Amino acid sequence: MSDDTTPQPPYQPGQAQPYAGGQQPYQSAPPPSQAYEPTQHRATPSPQRVTISAGTAFKAGFFGFFGWFVAALIVGTIVSCVAVLLGAVLTDLVRGMF
């Protein structure tokens, strides 16, 4: 089970089985003498500048507004349909009570 010649105790149920490779598969943190030393950071390049023309900005704004408008129409239609159906059901319930 291990590379050294010392006898190993027999495996017993309920105990962790020894690892056959000689080292544990999951080791704890290295000792302080082998602690992690961060590497020096290199200077990052300056961010790339992006220029947007007036036509591109106009298109982005137009289609952004158009997308929100269509989404609002869809949500408004669904909410209106639910309100009409709920009103019809409640009207029948109220008429049935009197």
Supply the number of helical segments: 1
Overall pLDDT, averaged? 76
Largest sheet: none
DSSP strand count: 0
Binned strand content: under 5%
Supply Rg: 36 Å
What is the approximate shape? flat
Termini gap: 86 Å
- Order of helices and strands, N to C? H
Low-confidence region ranges: none
Provide the structure class: mainly alpha
| Percentage of residues assigned to helices | 40-55%
Overview of the structural elements:
This protein has one helix spanning 54-97. With 98 residues, it is mainly α. The N and C termini lie far apart (86 Å). The relative contact order is 0.05. The mean pLDDT is 76.
Comma- or semicolon-separated keywords:
mainly alpha; 1 helix; single chain; 98 residues
Give a concise summary.
With 98 residues, the chain is mainly α. Helices cover 45% and strands 0% of the residues. The model has no long low-confidence stretch (mean pLDDT 76).
Please write out the topology.
Blueprint lengths: L53 H44 L1
